[in-house]
Amino acid sequence: MAQFQRLLVGLILAAVLLLVAEAAGDPDASGCRGLTRGRYSRIFAFGNSLTDTGNAAIYPPTAGGTFTELPYGQTYFGRPSGRASDGRIITDFLVLWRSCGSTTHAVDGLKVPQPTPYLAGRTAADFINGSNLAIGGATALEPAFLEARGVTSFVLVALSYETRWFENVLQLLVGSASHHAQLSITASSVFFVGEMGINDYFLSLFSNHTVDETASLVPHVVGAIRSALLATLAAGARTVVATGMPPLGCAPYMLALFPGDYDRVTGCDTRLNALAELHNGELKRTLDELRRAHPGRSLLYGDVYCTIRAAVTSPAKFGFGDAPLAACCRGGGGPYNFKFTTFCGAPGSTACADPSKSISWDGIHFTEAANRPQC
């Protein structure tokens, strides 16, 4: 792991791949070589815009967003690709990536094809390689639950909706086949659950709730994640990865919109980071409970929090520039280069000359450089 010059999500990815390999019983996992050896056939991904590879670009309420225009996609695809980044995101590297380290320590990705965004598929053939069920703007909690607490969702899709989408896909794939056929699909798949809850907490704060009031949502958010994990386990999943909450107090949009108390070392908001830590503690306890209840299943935790905080604390060490809390593409200037009404790609916004020096692409989402593991 220490060989990577860019830690951030790249380290999460390497850790996830190693854990997945160990879960599969790969005899070479300790040497990080040939990690999955074709043990997995597909991936099913759940989450929000940090994981979405195309659903928000199809979903009518969000289809016309600025993320469907350049400069989104400029670094890798040369065009908007449905991803909220300048290039590839973690799900792209999870399925395809191979590190460039020494032969002894090379780490392979899952070696599975890119899963089809749920809204882009129609038939079983479309989902033979799995499905990305994540959609930008998704919340962990259902809109009615949030509304009852004075919180209005921008996108009326919750994690439970994505779970139902997964069940639809599974029904297409299995058809009238036996239960054994379903298990053969789910047992040979990796289930990836991205950082759900980010939008719930943001919307609560945006609705003028205090950090303490927002923290009261944590048990409910983690409960929704638990329900989604149980749904995958009930379907026969054997390898599930759930990533924790990133340090919310280090995100440019959070810093710009919700001024508070700042850490002297990182410049991050300590109150918002405490909220993220509370969430992560609850999620880890939930995963421990599920492991005890489901022996023989691998329920893995991806620690996003520590890796991002490390990159923000020492950006030069990991190849980033000297403004780790600033958005690359946005409008607003100041230490965070973020104004809520000036979206990346809209009039008044500009993109930095070299996105690879930035952690945050548009103040909310990561750059490809932050997602991509490098030697």
UniProtKB/TrEMBL annotation:
Pfam families for the chain: Lipase_GDSL (PF00657)
One example GO MF annotation: hydrolase activity, acting on ester bonds
Keyword Amino-acid biosynthesis in annotation: no
InterPro entries named in the record: GDSL, SGNH_hydro_sf, SGNH_plant_lipase-like
First and last residue of the signal peptide: 1-23
Keywords for this protein: Glycoprotein, Hydrolase, Signal
Organism superkingdom: Eukaryota
Keyword Glycoprotein tagged: yes
Family listed: Belongs to the 'GDSL' lipolytic enzyme family.
Protein name (database record): GDSL esterase/lipase
Protein source organism: Panicum virgatum (Blackwell switchgrass)
